[in-house]
Amino acid sequence: GEDVEQSLFLSVREGDSSVINCTYTDSSSTYLYWYKQEPGAGLQLLTYIFSNMDMKQDQRLTVLLNKKDKHLSLRIADTQTGDSAIYFCAELRGSQGNLIFGKGTKLSVKP
Amino acid sequence: NAGVTQTPKFQVLKTGQSMTLQCAQDMNHNSMYWYRQDPGMGLRLIYYSASEGTTDKGEVPNGYNVSRLNKREFSLRLESAAPSQTSVYFCASSGGTSGRAGDTQYFGPGTRLTVL
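The joint structure predicted for all components is written out below.
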């Protein structure tokens, strides 16, 4: 299909790890991104990974890329209530460099 | 740096009215974008501008026009608003050369538009 797919909801307990999954479509996409959107706010870039990498770690965030399966995941270690937000996966597609977004995964963190 | 700024933050229009959404960036970026965000639909690209003086249609351009006034500013105009254009509109900018980390897009806070 043409869409970037994400599950819509994820609920975890504070202190647990969260894993948000994404399936993208274009094997030639060069960059894949994770954005965070808090209620009533714009999108904040969390991290990105270049397509020739398998993993990228940035403090509590770990991005895993399986290029063969076109699968991207974002792991948040020691999830906090402040991590509650919608997380968008996006792929950089085409010569114009357009971002194609998933529909977003709403992460709820319970105390 | 303020990053990407948008005005207004909220707007209510009646069907058939026109308005212009303003966007400005102070990061000296080449490329600018307009998206709309609807519940359950993610973000969809309306128009983009790869450089000053150029604009191109995105996924959902119908009912909109854009102007890249200069390198800093990119406006989105609704000539005759329709209820289907009720949405949250985001402007973004990026360094602009495809396929590089400099293409990371930075987003404004959004404009919440309601068309009655």
